[in-house]
Amino acid sequence: MKKATEDAKIVGKIYPSKVVAKATVVSASPVTSTVITTVPIPKPISKGVVIGKQTGGSSSEKVDLSKIRDKGKEILIEKSKEEKKAEVAAEVEKMRHVQSIMRQRALEGSNFDKGDPLKVYNYETIESRVMFDHMYSSEKIPKKSYVVTNTDFSQLDFPINEMMFFMPQFKAESKIMETEEGKKMKIRFHAVLAKAQEEVWFLEKIRKVISFKRDVIFEGKIENVKYIVARASGKIQEFTVTNFPLMNTYDLINVALMLKDKSFSFLKDIEPDVFSLGCKHIKIYMENYFECLAQTDVELEIVKGIDIIAPMAPTKKQYELNKYEDGEVCLKPLGIVFAGKDKAGRAKRFLFQTCEVERYSNSQYTNLIGRMNHYKKNSEGDKKEIKKVISWYTEIRRVMMYAVQALTT
User: What is the CB neighbour count within 10 angstroms for residue 288?
Assistant: First the structure.
């Protein structure tokens, strides 16, 4: 309990609860990952990753949980009017950006190849989504699955981070990429050369790296690499650096660990400079992905050695939260209300929102789940939904910590 209290720097000091020790289980499902082991404290990622070398606002109305039928299935939570209105406003703003950008592009002429305009992630769409957002803007949700058993055909589903479209792919080119034109070139790199997401995103694990080779040098600046891999079913697949932001990041972690393993003799036929280039691309991508996660993750920020400055999402007002008991589930937005103290030592109610799951430490998860289990009026369905999110993100965090540790030694 002491550890949980010390960690509560974001949400305030947590009151001791009457929770018994049994109520500290985060996930009911055993983790059977073939990659994950007990993770020691990783080295700061700023030291570099070595892969291998050859030689918001909500409705104030309280939901009556007793009227919800719980059949053990996932519950579809209806969004409040305020949340729906905010989403519509955000979409309208994005469309304005797209229309503005497309008008600019019409005046620019055709000096640059910007790819197929019919792609889902075409040049204008990518630019409108990432050029006006922050590194921490991506949602911390899986693309398809919250499952954490991590088997050959149901691997861990990492969040897709669209901000990776313009993160620099090589440290040596960081000065170029920091310029406006450098960022646009990086977006063109993906818009022109990337495959559609459905061709490169999988829950099926990669089991073997067959080979990789040089591909085109885009606009004379970014060297692309084509990777050839075999998945658990035996299916052979090709992807390039341009596809990284649209892939399941667990695929890239798997490939990185395979390239680090010097026992893969079949890779010895690859020329040393090509091997180094292929490793370097994945290394830099993983560093950038980790850095983006650390912008809002209270445990990864310590590894990265940064301070979180990103604002938290709007929450319910204090008079609304006072209607809830300590540990009671809130459905709009989905989360857990808990009693605590603010920085001035005043007793208050706080709301853990699943949409900001990364803002809490593992020890705080344990404390919050204990409180939720202790409040007897919470339905099993509601508790299952919250535990599912926490369990999933705990595993995402653990895999990232493991990857950093493995790739920096």
Answer: 21
